[in-house]
């Protein structure tokens, strides 16, 4: 049986970071990735005549783990177009048009009130369970909005903004998610907006993950889906056996699982997973929405639009201005709370969804990846249901024997983001380095 020091399951940001740290520390690391590519929930693909991010898109310098990696690999940023026009639904439920400033004035009070107690609830962004959050963790974001007494137009606009952030019906998402994001930006919701949806990585996330992978000395094996992980033995004989779907087995001193909570049930673990993992996997995390790229005819204004939180697409914005033999076109990016309500092949229903956001656009084509239906993710960007953060986070971070868990789902600071994935990969690599004797340096190294 092939033997290595560490098997890392998954080559997303968490897995690549852990593998790099461990291989740079001298361990023999084998990274097993089920897909035919690295990157996990980041995926830059050429579609609609442009490189598009089908998964994660935006980063910011207030995300410290991301930014350290951006510096390390000399990555730059590009700004998504600054909106000149805003669209939202008026009190009559019909789309209204205004300026960006008018829209920001409309949502200002509600955005602040939702997170007004953030400094008491979550005084330290990097320690999200410290503070009054435990008392508040039974609340959903919808519970909070329903108690604010906002006028209907402002309430609907504020709700749509938060659906765009959390990618699920607000009644299913813990208030903790809103508080976490704003705690991570020092309590400033405007900065949180900028951090979560403004700056793309120049050259795409594909080039970023390739840069990390190029530093990993061990093998990154694609098309290698892990079926089971069994720990056995004690003392010096303690080891884990990782079995691939193909039947091949690898023996390791440590294993790092980077699977999201929703997907971890696809692997059989012996002993069974800790309670927090089993419980949260059974409940599912809250995120369940969609991200869709839409080609519309002509070069349209730089806009963003918010429909109702129950619409198939609740947030829509112009991202790229392009031209081909069919003429000028604009690529829009849209987000909705329920992945099952957007079918990229059904242009008529997409047109209706776009009309609800911003009338007057002609939908030509669309593309997306259904991350919820994808067995290797079964989630988008993680947001918790009520109770999940304070009840489970500490246990989700704990090591189980030789098994480590590195995933954005169990990060402290930007849980659910690329930053959280890197944080978790660094954390688990450090734990392994501290607990596993370093191998003798190989000759020449
Ligand atoms: C549509 C969308 C938009 C997003 N937008 C943003 C954004 O703008 N900014 C941001 O910071 N974040 C965003 N995110 C979140 C970000 O993509 C994730 O937080 C991050 O990429 C997660 O990294 P990870 O390594 O923890 O998990 P993953 O990337 O999911 O990595 C886990 C890996 O494990 C592999 N795997 C699963 N099962 C097995 C198995 N049995 N055997 C072997 N391998 C397996 C998977 O294929 C995957 O490669 C977005 C996510 C989505 C889906």
From TrEMBL:
Q: Name one Pfam family in it.
A: Amino_oxidase
The record's annotation in InterPro entries points to: Amino_oxidase, FAD/NAD-bd_sf, Flavin_amine_oxidase, Flavin_MAO
Q: Where does FAD bind?
A: 33-34, 226
Listed A to Z, the keywords are: Oxidoreductase
Domain (Amine oxidase) ranges: 13-433
Lineage: superkingdom = Bacteria
Q: Which PANTHER family has this protein been placed in?
A: AMINE OXIDASE, AMINE OXIDASE [FLAVIN-CONTAINING] B
The record's family statement is: Belongs to the flavin monoamine oxidase family.
Give the source lineage, highest ranks first: Bacteria, Bacillati, Actinomycetota, Actinomycetes, Micrococcales
Q: Which residues bind substrate?
A: 335
Note whether Endoplasmic reticulum occurs among the keywords: no
Q: Name one GO molecular function term.
A: oxidoreductase activity
Q: Which cofactor does it need?
A: FAD
Mind telling me what this protein is named?
FAD-dependent oxidoreductase
